[in-house]
Amino acid sequence: MAPKKKRNEMKHSNIICLRLSDIELELVNHAASQAKLSRSDYLRNLILDHKMAIHYEVVIDSQTIKMLLAEYGKIGSNLNQIAKYFNTGGAYSKSVTNEIQQCLYDLYRLKKDLLKMIGDYRGNSETY
Predict the structure, then answer these.
(1) Is residue 92 part of a domain?
(2) For 8-17, 18-27, 38-47, which range has the lowest pLDDT when averaged over its residues?
(3) Which domain, by its residues, includes 24?
């Protein structure tokens, strides 16, 4: 009887070394046996089939950002005072209307400034 021809499988000729503790190795061996795979096949599937989300954290120590955050805090305080005024039975007046419009304008201006700054610092976010 002639030997069976091997299927055209990918040859795994590259080696990656990984150090594990005795406990970690036992966990990998147990998981591989539960999956009815060799340790190599189990780790290969784990690495290649599992998508990892990579997140980049951009840290900016900028005086401008600190100033924008302080302004957001002040605007939020103003809006809380307006809400308290209405919740305690305050009457609707022209001054209150002007205050609300000013807060909305300030929020819009800060959003525009912040979006401009974010455009300057924007990085790439990828998923592998």
Answers:
(1) yes
(2) 8-17
(3) 17-56
- Token pair of 76, please? 């939020």
Q: Is the pTM of this model over 0.70?
A: no
* 56: exposed, middle or buried (Cβ count in 10 Å: 0-12, 13-18, 19+): exposed
Mean pLDDT of the chain: 78
pLDDT-above-70 percentage for the chain: 77
| DSSP classification of residue 89 | T
**Residue at a domain's end among 40, 56, 72:** 56
Kindly tell me if the per-residue pLDDT of 34 is higher than 80: yes
Judgement on whether residues 95 and 46 belong to the same structural domain of the protein? no
Kindly state whether residue 11 falls inside one of the protein's structural domains: no
Instruction: Please return the burial class of 48, using the count of CB atoms within 10 Å of its CB with bins 0-12, 13-18 and 19+.
Output: exposed
**In this structure, are 45 and 82 located in the same domain?**
no
Please provide the DSSP assignment of 116-128 as one string: HHHHHH-----B-
Sign of CA dihedral 31, 36, 40, 41: negative
